[in-house]
Amino acid sequence: MILQRFAILAVFFAASVSVAQAQTLRGSRDSVQRQYSIAVQDGFSFVARSSEIPNLVENGQLLRVVENRNLTLHGVSNPYASPAVKLLLDRLSAQYRRACGEKLTVTSLLRPQNRQPANASSNSVHPAGMAVDLRIPNRGRCRSWLEQTLLSLEGSGLLDVTRERNPPHYHVAVFTTPYKNYVATLTNSNQEYRVRRGDSLWKIAQTMGISLPQLRAANGISGDHIDVGQRLQIPAIASNTAVNAATTVDKIEYKVRRGDSLWGIARRYNTSVAQIMRQNGLNSDLLEVNQVLQITPGGSS
To answer: b/e map of 63-93 (b: 16 or more CB within 10 Å)?
Structure first.
């Protein structure tokens, strides 16, 4: 019995670690190089000195970022950014204030190449106005909300986020085309979904034909908690694939990997061990690596 409990706990811990490691805030040289390559590919101008800013503002490549009821600037020498960064700040700051009751604080925006700090990468996209630095919130729940929201957007390929240590801040590089297209799908023809008893975010995302990060980002949700009767915005990208919310999600095929258990697989797909066993004619919970299982996500009662 003790060994069985230990095995269950081990599987739960492994599943939790897997989710946590899916997206991180650590950053890397590869992520910096990716940001730089995207900036070059998108035709960004890298500002060498402040005197070049007015011309870029005039032709629309840079926009001024101003403080408002949701956003504050702290020590920002050049309050300018690309249109995509400004769009992110407008949306993120409003969601952050609703979630945390305080303003989102920006500590850096455009930094000309001759004003970069000594520890900055030569491939930094701050001189292009493609990045913003955000203050790390003091309150744990606000910090958690902001990190999970940014990681959700990163998981959808819309930006890259790193938690920097010296000085402490979140460095966020926004990918212009994907992010603008994403916002366009949200604002043009969103659908609304009302949460019902037995729903989960994962189940709603699968049913409506979108990813879980997209659903979280569209609603400013960092975790998995939802309430019966809550209204969720469904991005318009789902409009061509959405099905009636009462329809059962189509079954999928899952190939068993080393370390898998029926309990872990059932938890991952919001179903039950009994349901998987019935669906696959299993007489025991023993699995073999590369065994293929038929699974209906959200199939548990």
So the answer is: bebeeeebbbbeebebebbbbbbbbbbebbb
